[in-house]
From TrEMBL:
NCBIfam families: fut_nucase, PRK08236.1
InterPro entries noted in UniProt: FL_hydrolase_MqnB (IPR019963), Nucleoside_phosphorylase_sf (IPR035994)
The protein's annotated pathway: Quinol/quinone metabolism; menaquinone biosynthesis
Organism name: Streptomyces andamanensis
Name by which UniProt lists this protein: Futalosine hydrolase
Highest taxon listed in the record's lineage: Bacteria
Low complexity bias (residue ranges): 250-264
Residues spanning the membrane: none
EC assignment: 3.2.2.26
GO MF, any single term: hydrolase activity, acting on glycosyl bonds
Family: Belongs to the PNP/UDP phosphorylase family. Futalosine hydrolase subfamily.
Enzyme class: hydrolase
Reactions listed under catalytic activity: futalosine + H2O = dehypoxanthine futalosine + hypoxanthine
Keywords attached to this entry: Glycosidase, Hydrolase, Menaquinone biosynthesis
Length: 264
């Protein structure tokens, strides 16, 4: 990702507890990169450490961008009741997908497995009366970033366990019909950013289909190349964007409650 900001010069490493910040430019004037780690917990901890250090130094961040690779959902037909003109009959609108090598920008960052299993199915933690499961990046930033990169926009799911069966892929898509991709860090990064009232953006390049694990079908190198190219196109948007929209959550939190390479 540092290649997209080559004019800033070589990065300078700033060690922090549990994470190293790679700084391009001076504090408050450039870009800081961290490898946040795998999974939502470590990503949240790493991001929170960087955010807190910057705030205590008097140079708080204005934006957090979560960048990495992901699994992409295939296009699918959704069963929905009530076709217009034919009451009660099902119709099957086509759900979009994200093919290998494509870019996805999250307009919603959703924790897909934060909740409880019940006899009637999965309940998100919000249905249990606390927490939040979705963060929304600023709409104007998502629009500008999608225009610059050509990325598709939709929900990016955060999971703690990567999907490895067709049944789980179908279940996730049924619960989240707008989902284009799944990864393992976005929600953790977004939670840390929200705690500091900093907006967040998530950009993913698809390296593999969501579903049965088939390592022969993974295209991690191609996805990383697409991600590097996409982030290069995104860089001018980030440099010119002024934070004027507060970070959004889909649900109000009822209890108290920056970039990484990761695959799905």
């Amino acid at each position: 990702m540092a290649r997209a900001f080559a004019s800033a010069g070589p990065p300078r490493e700033v060690p922090l507890p549990g994470v190293a910040v790679h700084r391009l430019g001076g504090p408050g004037t450039g870009l800081d990169l961290i490898a946040a780690g795998v999974g939502p917990a470590l990503a949240a901890a790493s991001t929170a450490t960087a955010l807190t250090a910057a705030a205590l130094a008097g140079a708080p961040y204005g934006l957090v961008v979560c960048v990495g690779i992901a699994g992409g959902f295939a296009p699918a037909a959704a069963e929905l009741p009530g076709r217009p003109g034919s009451p009660g009959s099902p119709h099957r609108p086509r759900l979009p997908g994200a093919p290998v090598g494509s870019l996805v920008l999250a307009d919603e960052i959703t924790a897909a497995d934060l909740g409880a299993e019940t006899a009637d199915g999965f309940l998100p933690v919000t249905d249990l009366g606390f927490g939040t499961v979705t963060h929304r990046p600023p709409e104007s930033l998502v629009r500008a970033a999608a225009s610059a990169t050509g990325a598709a926009t939709g929900t990016v799911l955060t999971v703690s366990t990567v999907t490895g069966t067709a049944a789980r892929a179908a279940a996730l898509r049924a619960r989240h019909p707008r989902a284009l991709a799944e990864a393992m860090e976005g929600f953790g990064v977004a939670e840390a950013a929200a705690a500091h009232s900093v907006p967040v953006l998530e950009l993913r390049a698809v390296s593999n289909p969501v579903g049965p694990r088939d390592r022969a079908a993974w295209r991690i190198g191609d996805a990383l190349a697409a991600l590097t190219e996409g982030f290069g196109k995104l860089a001018p948007v980030l440099e010119s964007w002024n934070a004027h929209e507060p970070p959004e959550s889909a649900e109000p939190a009822q209890s108290a409650e920056p970039a990484e390479p990761a695959d799905s």
